[in-house]
Amino acid sequence: MISIDNLHVEFSARPLYDHISFVINDRDRIALVGKNGAGKSTLLKIISGIQTPTSGNVTIPNGTTVGYLPQVMKIQDDTTVRDETRKAFSDTIQMGKKLEAMQQEMAERTDYESREYMDLVERFTNLHDRYMMLGGEQYEAEMERTLQGLGFSRPDLDRPTAEFSGGWRMRIELAKILLQKPDILLLDEPTNHLDIESIQWLEQYLAQSSCAVVLVSHDRAFINNVTNRTIEIVCGHIEDYKVKYNEYVVLRKERREQQLRAYENQQKEIADTKAFIERFRYQATKAVQVQQRIRQLEKIVPIEVDEVDTSALRLKFPPCLRSGDYPVICEDVEKTYQHLVFENVNLIIKRGEKVAFVGRNGEGKSTLVKCIMGEIPFGGTLKIGHNIQIGYFAQNQAQMLDDELTVFETIDRVAKGEVRLRINDILGAFMFGGEASEKKVKFLSGGERSRLAMIRLLLEPVNFLILDEPTNHLDMQSKDVLKEAIKAFDGTVIVVSHDREFLDGLVDKVYEFGGGKVREYLGGIYDWIRSHEQSKAEISQPKAKEVVETPVQNDVAQTEEPSKDDILSYAERKERNKKISKLEKSIKEVEGKIETLEKRIKELDAVLCSPEGASDMAVVSEYTSTKQVIDAETTRWEQLCEELEGLR
Prior knowledge:
This is ABC transporter ATP-binding protein. The protein is of the alpha/beta class. Among the domains are: about 250-300; about 330-540, P-loop containing nucleotide triphosphate hydrolases (Rossmann fold, 3-Layer(aba) Sandwich), CATH 3.40.50; about 565-645. It has helices at about 40-50, 80-85, 90-110, 115-135, 140-150, 165-180, 195-210, 220-225, 245-280, 285-300, 365-375, 405-410, 425-430, 445-460, 475-490, 500-505, 525-540, 565, 570-610, 610-615, 615-645; strands at about 1-10, 15-25, 30-35, 55-60, 65-70, 185-190, 210-215, 230-235, 235-240, 330-335, 340-350, 355-360, 380-385, 390-395, 465-470, 490-495, 510-515, 515-520. A 6-stranded mixed beta sheet has the order 5-6-7-3-8-9, with helices on both faces. β8 (about 230-235) and β9 form a beta hairpin. It starts with a strand and ends with a helix.
């Protein structure tokens, strides 16, 4: 359908592509992949006609329509969501007005037998058929379905677009492009501003669509569910794989191993040839052979090996203090701006847990994180455990870096111990290898600053990580490095993210935000997705009427399960609250005792590290007995907490 022929692009005399060619066929679903800076977004701009290549051609057949969604675009803010989205149907609306005018003309004319009247009827019929093929009067319903699929509620449709954030306005632009039904869709990071539900809706939409798709995305689950072909931009050329991304990863690894073997064989051949030339250069009897070898050497085309895959690099958080067993306890926490964000939030996060905050944008995920950080006021009680050292990655974290430092200096200032010897490797894993490490922070792009802020966080000694959308500007290799580092982290983690592949295997508990409530789900992200889809299916299915004979006096149906407070009498509630207070006091006493004993253990550790202390049996005995007491107190603490949870 679309032919890219001998495309060559240069920036500052450096070739970005070196005469690449490929064809986009009908119903192709292409994932465009490659390292940051390889030219993925540039290629989409060239295909869409926004940018001109240095040489080469992009051939698009007449009548073929192209829809292009860039990462960033200027958006109008002078109308409502509904009216702005309706612009996608401008041709259909104009056609409808023309049909109305023709219909009015036919009603007013009386020359039914004339040739002009018959021509008018024929034009009206043809235009009406085309109008109905384009959806006719159904476009309003289709528009609402698309906007709701992308996360807008029905009341949102009549709100001014100026009231929405940039991410929500990008959703409006995506809806307009989808509703225009182009023959080919070019999507540059379409999931950056979507939540999990909207991403799943977009996956289904693209799967059912008849158009071709070329997309750039770092969401592995999304491109695996959408694409059937993978084009990699590497070393200025392309490699075309007719498979999904996961299969491409396997094939690419095999291909690189073949490249390495061929490269090593070629280097051996070059070395042997050079050795022969040097050995016999000045012997007259070997002059002919030497000249032959020199010509052979000149004809050798160097084998290029793809960039080294640094995803295998492993980072480990530096050691830190042991935190309290309950880093976060929320009791009836609520937050209200002009509207209610959430209320009655009751949650307990234990030490070592890795949890995800999920839900639609605007439901309060980042707001609760800010409450935990103490950045904004809130109602209710929120307790932070003892010895908590928080490492916080906010969505605007990149703006807090020192502009005057270089990339290397920024990391060198926080790196400690043996990590200092591996700074260049770590920077390379996050695409700051070579000269890029000497760039000043003020010259970095937004995505580069975010990656640098993430590396800085990875090297700080903390025992509680809070990550708010950490993967938005990370490529797949960088995400893999980050994910492995978090999995190996023995502290507590809260992740706010819509990246299913990143969360899969990382979190063991999910908190869903929605409708002013926060609900807890035990299990991983896909467990929550299955549970969520099942709940939606149950809600959408009408319940069968149950015929149950009930006494006349029970004419009020019980619609909700009574709470514990409703069942208990006043005296029982008073007794229960008394027990809760007593247990909370006991828990604090035990925690204080454990903290004191742990300090003593550290002192004994220091003594045992000395030659004199290592042979002092009294110290060894005290160390052993103190450890036993800590274990016993920890067991008692766990029992008390279980009792407390049972009462609540």
